[in-house]
């Protein structure tokens, strides 16, 4: 009589190797990334339009935009926070977007890995540099025409 | 409830046949088939067949005519020939459809009609692909009823409202038109694909089933629902008119709700 054996899906032995799924790490990373894209997207709409309106439309509009205008904005903690939030959210949102594009279009794991390394490196450089500039910005460069510097 | 897309208007003028069973109009078509035979050549190539077909014929009839009257080596799958078995999904004029549900008169017959195997799965010969990777994903989501507790002595009752909840996804015939139309699946074949998610949806939202959590866990994988980019190719390709992208979105929300 036949003995009971473990259930083996029919013909699954001859499946082309490239279709075999490598068991992924447990966890919710992809879900959190998906959620982050939606939430950061909403915030970015407000942040970016706020940025565009204050810089380009209000007051002298685009004609009032110069070094002094930016220096004035960054003297205010609100705008420091605003620009910091915009920098971080836009960079992470964009990086995650490009990450999914790399995942979708690169078909070799090695290519995928190196493209993502370049992407992450670029992101870290820009985020660190941008954060540093926002917090350590000194309007009084040598020969500054600004009143506060004299 | 049918959500099937309306077929485009006929591109051939079929003269109104007056009264008693008149003649069926005939026209010539060029059928351009993607031929592949690994025993002869590693390269696939296009082959043209000029056929005289009737206004009532489908692409499947044209393929039959080729196989039976012109070239018996042409290989394709078909079984019921009436849009239910899901054997003859193929890429016709660049779109995934069932050859048995596509009338020739609805296509542009002034140009060659291209017929090729569905994309993303390994081609075995001509229009036949290896469906195994597709069924592998299907098996992984456990497409069967799992229930805990006591076996009822009679039927498992369900209210019409509860049945309505997953009605759309019960229509799937596993033809692979959706999965093989998905650009994410084309890349590396790792994505579970729309068909597996549709069939998971059918049980996740079934009030009699108790393994919804397990299925959601399986589809929370990095190759699961989150790889869907909502390009709607699957919804357009489905010969049964299933709102595939909507079903995937509902599974995404269920995974999210479960984790919160």
TrEMBL record, chain A:
Pfam families per record: Sdh_cyt
Keyword set includes Iron: yes
Main location: membrane
InterPro entries: SQR/QFR_C/D, SuccDH_FuR_B_TM-su
Location in or out of the cell: Membrane
Keyword set includes Transmembrane helix: yes
Ranges annotated as spanning the membrane: 35-58, 78-98, 118-137
This protein's name: Succinate dehydrogenase
UniProt entry keywords in alphabetical sequence: Heme, Iron, Membrane, Metal-binding, Transmembrane, Transmembrane helix
TrEMBL record, chain B:
Enzyme class: oxidoreductase
Sequence ranges assigned to domain 2Fe-2S ferredoxin-type in this UniProt record: 27-121
InterPro entries: 2Fe-2S_ferredoxin-like_sf, 2Fe-2S_ferredoxin-type, 4Fe4S_Fe-S-bd, 4Fe4S_Fe_S_CS, Beta-grasp_dom_sf, Helical_ferredxn, SDH/FRD_Iron-Sulfur, Succ_DH/fum_Rdtase_Fe-S
Cofactor(s) essential for the protein: [2Fe-2S] cluster; [3Fe-4S] cluster; [4Fe-4S] cluster
Pfam families reported in the protein's UniProt record: Fer2_3 (PF13085), Fer4_8 (PF13183)
Pathway membership: Carbohydrate metabolism; tricarboxylic acid cycle
Annotated catalysed reactions: a menaquinone + succinate = a menaquinol + fumarate
Enzyme Commission number(s) from the entry: 1.3.5.1
Key words, A-Z: 2Fe-2S, 3Fe-4S, 4Fe-4S, Iron, Iron-sulfur, Metal-binding, Oxidoreductase, Tricarboxylic acid cycle
Domain 4Fe-4S ferredoxin-type: start-end pairs: 162-184
Keyword Transferase appears in the UniProt entry: no
Source superkingdom: Bacteria
Cofactor: how bound: Binds 1 [2Fe-2S] cluster. Binds 1 [3Fe-4S] cluster.
Protein family: Belongs to the succinate dehydrogenase/fumarate reductase iron-sulfur protein family.
Alphabetized PANTHER family for the sequence: SUCCINATE DEHYDROGENASE [UBIQUINONE] IRON-SULFUR SUBUNIT, MITOCHONDRIAL, SUCCINATE DEHYDROGENASE IRON-SULFUR PROTEIN
Full protein name: Fumarate reductase iron-sulfur subunit
